[in-house]
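Support reply, case 0932

Customer input (verbatim):
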Amino acid sequence: MKVLSILLALVNSLMAGLIVLSCISISNLSWEGLGWLAVRVATGVLVILVGVLTFRDGVKGIGSEMMLMAGLLLILLGTGSAMWGLHLSIISGDVKNVMILFGGSLVLQGIASIVGLHESGGMTV
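Our regenerated output:
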């Protein structure tokens, strides 16, 4: 599960980087959209940081509490992202498969991180 978690961390970090770059490159920014832009950029940077943390945990073990919190955070972000994509699909009629797949990938990375932590003996139930 650690290998799957590291692979998904790479894919999710790349996707989050693309989201951050697309948010930063917006040319017609208004004051009303500044808060939403800050939330998207902060979430993308957070996903990238969790990806780096996951890779670092695969190379050299770090604290199990931090990885557990990172995994739970990814599950929450992934669920929210998938539901936001589903909401936009229902409202606009245009299916946002990318957001649903990205949210599912975040959830899968979070679950793989937690299960890999449990399998390595870093977490006791």
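We compared this against your earlier run and they match. Two observations from our side: The helical segments are 2-24, 34-59, 64-92, 97-119. The chain has a mean pLDDT of 85. Please reopen the case if you see a mismatch on your end.
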